[in-house]
Amino acid sequence: MTSAAAETEVQPLLEVDNVSKTFDIKLGLKRATVYAVGGVSISVQPSSTLGIVGESGCGKSTLARLILGLYPADRGEIRFAGQPLPRRGKRPRAVVEQMQMVFQDPYSALNPRASIGQSIAFPLQVQGMDRAEIRDRVARVLHDVGLHGNYATHYPHQLSGGQRQRVNIARALAMAPRLVVLDEAVSALDKSIQAQILNLLEDLQRAYQLTYIFISHDLNVVEYMSNRVAVMYLGQVVETCAADELYQRPLHPYSQGLLASIPTLDGASTEPTRVTGEMPSPLNPPSGCRFRTRCPFATDTCATHVPVLAEAEPGHLVACHLYPSSQPTTTPTTTQGE
Ligand code: SF4
């Protein structure tokens, strides 16, 4: 984690401004709408790590794909290095190359019939890079992720899970990215291998001056990796602040519940503030505050008015009516960002 850049006021490398995404699906004979991401705004400073955390199905991965341009956004704007990106259609090639992603499953992310060298080289060939330069680049990124150059001739099935994820990281690095989105990138690995990959990611961030978006449901690894954290619930950011501040003093009831669910070494019980119940379906999110059906502090206002994500304390944004900064909007019942 490189923190210096994160704390200074410089132009964010990435800005996501009020971005929303719905999917129309078929449910039997009927059509329905999934409210996947609703009015999300985040920004990431260069050479820093933004952690995005939340339960499975909260919209983290959809947000990642919107950022990478893999899904078109319904509304809102995404800016990269200050440049607004088209909401639909092709992005400038230089931007595409500078934004890379590492997926959760290191095996399915690789072509089983291509050697490791071929997998890393392929996007460089598409770029038009000459063969000698590609060979050098492949050897260098393999070295930088801790793999011997001989691995270039290996195939994915010959590698362990940790080695395969190193290859996926090498493939992202080969494009000389500025931003890497890591979507549950260590979740499928054993704990001991996880630690090695996390340390590798930190080393690479320093060496390549990378900016990370680190997406995970695992609060411990998010805390370890991140300068800032955004907590997502049912497609929306409900709290965002510096990582140490979130873990020491979460303000949103959902964040408090999430953190209370982290097992402690001494087995101390944190049950009273744990989040209980199931997350509602994104097909039919609750009116007002989407967390109200599980919130111990919910009032009538929470059912009729959407809390605004706003600064409750300097640099600490929260969307909850318990804080005056999130005071009700004049439009009742609609969900944030829809
Ligand atoms: Fe709970 Fe209301 Fe705050 Fe939502 S707005 S988190 S329901 S207190």
Structure write-up:
This protein is an alpha/beta fold and about 350 residues long. It has one domain (about 5-100, about 175-325): Rossmann fold (3-Layer(aba) Sandwich). Helices cover about 30% and strands about 25% of the residues. The chain is built from eleven helices and twelve strands. It has helices at about 5, 60-70, 95-100, 115-125, 130-145, 160-175, 190-210, 220-225, 245-250, 255-260, 300-305; strands at about 15-25, 30-45, 50-55, 75-80, 85, 100, 180-185, 210-215, 230-235, 235-240, 310-315, 315-320. The chain has an eight-stranded mixed beta sheet, with helices on both faces. The chain has a four-stranded antiparallel beta sheet with strand order 2-1-4-5. The two termini are about 35 Å apart. The model is unreliable at about 1-5 and about 330-338 (pLDDT under 50). Iron/sulfur cluster binds near residues 297, 298 and 321.
What is the element layout, followed by pairings?
Elements (H helix, E strand, L loop, with lengths): L3 H4 L6 E14 L2 E15 L4 E5 L6 H9 L6 E6 L2 E2 L8 H6 E4 L13 H12 L3 H14 L16 H14 L4 E5 L7 H18 L2 E6 L2 H7 L2 E6 L2 E7 H6 L4 H8 L39 H5 L5 E4 L2 E3 L20
Parallel strand pairs: 3-8, 3-9, 6-7, 7-8
Antiparallel strand pairs: 1-2, 1-4, 4-5, 9-10, 10-12, 11-12
Helix pairs in contact: 4-5, 4-6, 5-6
The structure holds iron/sulfur cluster.
Iron/sulfur cluster binds next to loops.
